[in-house]
Amino acid sequence: LERILDPLLDNARRAMNDRPGIRLSTGKNGDEFFLQVEDQGPGIPPDLAQRIFDPFFTTRPPGQGLGLGLFFARNAAEQLGGKLTFSPRDGGGCIFCARLPLDASSFDRKTSSVSPYEALRTGTPRH
């Protein structure tokens, strides 16, 4: 969960320039647990929104980010059998929502192929 939450909160904090206004919500919806981070920053331009989960894509100035935070967060959610989504917030800002299964017993990590995150992090080829 830290691999998901850490980059989401860091991005929200930077978008808000350390001002208050970040909302963290958690809850249950059916057989899913959700974790949502919402900020009131400038948001992400629509023409860039489809690229935000790409590795090495960043909207930050040079030297202020590698563009891996959202890539790693999404892959961490997928490793847990879930997904991470983005939507623009009405009035400006972003909403990122991680949806994870409440019962992870059906997600067998031992038989799964290496995730894109682990392959990138460790240099292990994917099967």
Overview of the molecule:
This protein is α+β, with helices and mostly antiparallel strands and 127 residues long. It is 28% helix and 22% strand. It contains four helices and four strands. The protein has a four-stranded antiparallel beta sheet, covered by helices on one side. Strand 1 and strand 2 (32-38) form a beta hairpin. The longest helix is centred in the first third of the chain and has 14 residues, at 2-15.
Spatial separation of the terminal alpha carbons: 25 Å
Q: Order of strands in the sheet with the most strands?
A: 1-2-4-3
Name the beta content range.
Answer: 15-25%
Instruction: Specify the number of helices.
Output: 4
Helix share of residues? 25-40%
Structural class, judged by helices and strands?
alpha+beta
Q: Could you tell me the number of beta strands? A: 4
Low-confidence stretches: none
What descriptive keywords fit this protein?
127 residues, alpha+beta, 4-stranded antiparallel β-sheet, 4 helices
In terms of topology, how is this protein built?
Blueprint: H1 2-15, E1 23-29, E2 32-38, H2 46-49, H3 69-79, E3 83-88, E4 94-101, H4 116-122
Antiparallel strand pairs: 1-2, 2-4, 3-4
What is the compact description of this entry?
This protein is of the alpha+beta class and 127 residues long. It has four helices and four strands, in the order αββααββα. It is 28% helix and 22% strand.
